[in-house]
Structures
1.
Amino acid sequence: MPESWRKLLVGLTLFLGAGMAIGWLYDRPETGLLIAALIALAWQVRQLLAFDRALRTRNFEAFRYGDGIWEQIFARFVFHSERSLRHKRRYRELLREIRKSTDAMPDGAVVIDTNNEIVMSNRAAKQLAGLRPKKDRGQRVDNILRDPGLTALLQSGDSEASIEIASPVRVGDWLNCRVVPYGADQKMLLLRDVTDRLRLNKMRRDFVANASHELRSPLTVISGYLDSIAEEPEFEEWRMPIAQMQSQAQRMQQIIAELMELSRLESAGRAGTRDVVDVAGLIASSVKAVQSRGTTPAIHVEADRRLKIRGNGTQIESVITNLVSNAARHTPEDGSITVRWEASGKSGLLSVEDTGEGIAAEHIPRLTERFFRVDRGRSRDDGGVGLGLAIVKHILSRHDANLSIDSTPGVGSAFRCEFPKDRVELEETAEAALKSAEG
Amino acid sequence: MEASHLTDHISRRYNKDIEDLRNSVMTMGGLVEDQLSRAIAAIVSGDSELGLKVASDDYKVNNLEVNIDEECSRILATRSPAASDLRLIVAIIKTITDLERIGDEAEKIGYLASQLAAMDRPSDSYRELKYLGNHVSQMLRAAMNAFARLDVEASLEVVKEDDRVDEEYDAITRQCITFMMEDPRSIRRFMNVTWAARSLERIGDHAKNIGEYVIYMVQGRDIRHTETSDHFESPA
């Protein structure tokens, strides 16, 4: 039993006992007990009322609690109320700090709930997109930022995808938007200013396109004169140099043509899905074209005629031609090349395997860079320009496809292009339908 | 700011209907804003393909207008809204008409862009049209923001802004006339520029209308065909 309880009970018993003893003297013990009990009750009621008044007016000084149970209660109350006040103040401080740090972020951050309504947004969101931190709380974010692309992004719930929208506040600026899951069922919309990046990218693209365009006309003149001189050179000893100049001019023309194709590919969007491409037919014609250019190793083709791709036919043909002619260039004449086009699971797999010299593992990640050469010292007379794989990679990414390269030096290489299932179509022939019906 | 008072009904379903209706108006607004900015970009960059794309995309705006109109009639018939809800529905019916007209003007600008792309281009690539276009896009954006936020002050700003757009339009017309007098061979081209400027100016008028509907929706006052200055004395 705590000290204060004992004190209270002993004090109360003594007080009531004393009352009863005094009553005894006058021969009326019940009356004495009653009067003592009433006095004790009155005093406790007074304390209770005073305590209540102290709580209501918050004027604790005026409360005379004496010592005993009331002092204990009062001390405990003051202790708890001060502690909760301290906590509250600390939380408020902490919140202010969090607020300050989110406001200091250079990227806009908007917390939204399942209905796309704004829960919280920082200062950058106001500067970049005009979302007002307090007033727009509860508004749907796509009612304020009304870009059709953003609405689609919010509906898709894809946390990997990102889109660029024009800033509604700063004319000419571009914002990159991403939606990432946040907390239990909230999402966070991240806005980043990408104006400079887009401008740089555009400048680089324009430069390559303009430079190759400007180089083409002088080169046409040079190779035109070369062609006419080559027919009857003035001196016999010029025949060799002129022939070499002709072949180099042709090479430059090819480089320029491929550079221009690359820059066209870069500015083009995703390939459409309306046209159905007959891959097997393209493989046959590409192989024939490569073979007609000179002696090649044996080329085996295993293509599934029923399997088609939805996309751009010319671009797919360029992929096949580039891969096959690459393989032919790096494979000795007694080697072999295998071109396969088949269904793999639900996706379509185009692979070109050769038994050529192979590529060392450290070079594989850089193969698709422009003008990348495995062997810097090797002569460039093999007809390659150095842009083929870059073009392949660009075309594949425009068809949502993946390029993977496996190679063992001395054994051979395999280039595999995997097309996703919504780009691939399996044409059911009557025969196949019959077979599946039997099975 | 007062968006919550719209969704204050006993019937949950009614709340949701009205909220959905408002959201689809904002979606339509977003689409129209996108069309307009692409049309302006087509003129400024001389991109005839983009211009034709804008023109052929106008059907999306029209479809949305028809859908929203139908939804409004359905709510009017089944819920018989009163007071602020009724004003909201009336304002929406009017707003989508103006949005659809803005879509039509953007379609026109798209066509004009594709025609202008085939002609000589001035060295400043139609800077005045770009300024006027940006000005009008800002106005439209401000009007739709005011609609979303039910912001009377911002709507009044939009209404006032229209005078400045009209001045800019006058300046462009005058400039075009000067050019045409200097060089009669350029008349065809500058006629197209004038048409584009005219379309942009009309878009400004429609944006102003939307601003007026917002004021009607929030305060129940009709300020059309009155002097704007009156409203600044006593904003209720």
2.
Amino acid sequence: MRSLFLFLALLCWQTAGAQAPQARVTGVWVRATVPGQQATGAFMTLESDVPLKLIEVRSPLAAAAEIHETRVDDDGVMRMRAIPQLDLPAGKTTQLKPGGHHIMLLGLKAQAKAGEQTTLTLVLEDAARQRREIVADAPIRALNAPHQHGEPMR
Amino acid sequence: MKKRLAAAFLALLAACGAPEDAAKSAPPFHAEEIQAHYGEGFQMTDTQGQTRILADWRGKVVLVFFGYTHCPDACPSALYRFSQVMEILGQEATQVQVLFITLDPARDTPEVLRNYAPAFNPSFLGLYVRPERTPEMAHAFHVFYRITPGETPDRYSVDHSVSAYAYDPSGRLRLEIPHTATPDEVADDVRQLLLENVKK
């Protein structure tokens, strides 16, 4: 009886642990496009209490979304690459911002108009390969909206 | 006596010469000075279908950036930075022309370009060459680019140089502006190029 109680208590604790909010996404925005432009970028700040991996992103705005890394090498050449996942270390803030990482939205279904809004679904995976999804509202900001590091995000 | 007078005259000459030398060696630019003629005279097309060369904007400082509109990061950042430069320059901004030259004319059709560059500042212009001439254009401007295939044939990305060029009002290439330059630094350099022109 006692061991059953313990078992149930443990089960409850584990379930509670799995459902606790462990990741937060803030400052999400998508860069507006002009008519005919087929792709754009999305940016955000991610925070997690436990080690997580961002493994997939979806948006109703785009046929496909990829996690991209931008690097400017010593020779002054910008290189952009799709990466299979983005590690979110526990207790740390991971910024997806110009000059670092971004979500590349490809095959846009419509023009991304400044002032409108879309959503991004982020698929996160923990060390036990458990997946969870976060759906974030993503305002679309003008092409020339301030976005550099150190400038107001909103 | 004559000798002493001559020495005094020489000293006076030297004294006069000193500030003149100082004036000649104007403060250095933030960006890297460049002694080359990349792209000067190279023919491109504007979004109205007109053939353009950089000399068309003689009398202005011309800032040139190469990129592609599917670039979500470096290209809008660079054009945004130039829009800030224009704001800093205020009235002097009328003496500056920013040109965005596409390295991806296959996807950056005139329609896309026509709206893209002016989205950052109404005065910005997009230029292109026919896709088969892009390698020739990149060569003329000494710009590196390489197409990297993506998941599908139309989802490629374009690795490319992210520094910009500044041409002075006489149409000469003068500066290579690194992507790390701040808007204030670029504005300073533009002002200096405009000032040189006034002095002439």
3.
Amino acid sequence: MGEREIIELLLKREDAGAEELLRQYGPLIRYIIAPILEKEEDREECLSEVVLKVWDRIGTFDVSKASFTTWLTAIARNSALNRSRRLHSNEELSEKIHATSGQPEEELLKRERKNRLFNALEGLPAVDKTLFYRKYYYMQSTAQIAREMGMSERAVEGRLYRIKQKLKKMLGGEGDE
Amino acid sequence: MSDIKNDMNFEEMLIESMPEIPPSDITHEVTPWRKAMNMVLWGMGLTTITLNFFLLQFILPTIGIMLLVSGFQMLRNENKWFKASFAVSIMQLAVIIIVLISNTIAVAETDNLMVLLSVVNVAIDFAQYFCLWRALVALKVKTGLEIKTSAAGGLIIWYAVMCALALIQYVGLIITGILLIIYIIVIRSIYKLSKQVEKAGYSIVAAPVLIEGRKLTAIVCSVLALGFLCGYTFGSSYNMDWQVFEAGDNKEVSRIKSALVDKGVPTHILDDMTDEEILECKGFRNVIVESREHFDGQLNITGVGIELAGQREQWKLIQHFKWKEDEKFRGTESIQLWPAYRNFDGWWGDPAQVSGRVFYDDGDNTYVAPYHYLGQETFTYQTTMFGKRTSTDVFATFSIPNKGNNRRGYVTYNIKEMEDGMIVDSWINYTHQGTLIQYPAMTAMEKRMLVSWNDAWPFKTVQDALQFYPHDGKVDTW
């Protein structure tokens, strides 16, 4: 069954859609959750939570904004981060795209910072950009990044350090301190 | 700004500032599967297709095998078949390194080794396709997803057909064209297969890297560089049996030489010949000498015909070469002899009786050596107009050191008249190696056996002929 068929089943609120979602996209969701949540039981609960959220929010999925995989990735990542933060503190990350919170000035500052970081990342070479997202978006460990990118851990650390120095400069810090 | 300067805060700020939704190219890239499988697919493609130009038949498979090693290295912990694929790819790498280094050795007898390596290579390739197919089947079973693994199985059948055609030396275009189309379809199917496997690929746990791509490339390049250095240093020239030359003091020989010199035979040619060869000329009747320069005057070839005494007309033919001082010798040299009895049935000769030697001077000494090989060879070559042809010729092969000077040599043989009124027409094709570096390396004789008259790098061939018409006790040049 293809992606479109699964989305249609989910939109029709048919159980088969959720089952197929879990069967076909379960490995992806687990892959996103695993680096963020340490315990297996948390991961399993988070997986169920993600499937429920997809079931609830499938109507908001807009293919013109992101692919289904990207949309699922965002939901899984933010659900896992929220669960992780709940486990450690009371802070919760919004899972809604372009969600707002806090004071308007603070929000403006955040938005500005995000824009600058996004633009800075867009200027990086493809490999550096992927490496950076793996580390700071997917929260993957250096060992995992090294394994999956065919690099040594030392090479990953070195590269990340150089990227951070570059970004510091680009974002107004001094770099190479 | 102070946040940015503080490392901890900077890390937190980065995590906080990441976009809610990652760019599509990132979600496409971030998977434990894609990079490994892309390397495997490219590796398969590059090792299977052979392009016989610009050395691509060596470069592409080497890159392909390194990609296979890197790709399977990442997948080796997934199941036993991926682990086997990794082991097989290392064997492939070892074999291709041996082949690449062997190709720099021109003078060793590596034909048997090459045949053995070809057989091993075919077996390894089959093992590789089989292991990949089983590895994908195992992945399919593990994930329970619908994956069509028949494309990988198709690759095995395709390769078997290719091997069968190679075995029967099929060169037709139609079946080759059909196979190429099938190959493209199979590779496309495998690409589709890798797409199907993508979702299952998230469940793969990539193995720690044993050796990074750059390090692997550096090691392979270093091993090849060292191997090439050894190959070109020790495998480019024949091991010649050089001895100090001592001139004889046979008075009879001196008398015959003196008489031949009076008839115009150059002294230096007679001095190079053996006493036995000179003694054969006792009571000679006629002499003819022809001399020409080749390679812009660097090489002098002199042809000498001496009519020997006896009831039946018979001639001793000598074809002598001498290099000028500033020529460099980089590897092997070859003389291909087309004897007079080969060109006209009116003459008889024995190929086993062709003789000759090579010389050089160094200081006060003259050094002499027999040819590394002197004998008759039958070989098959490809022609544009007439397809495959077979020829049987006499070859003399040798190497000359760059030290010393006055490098020279000769070949000589006798012919007897079978039919009156026939011209004498004896040819030599001298092949000279101009540069050391050539790939794959071959000897001057092997180059000549290709019957290529192309004087491109690194061999050059010149032709010279001793031609005359003996009649009524006289000799006319022809």
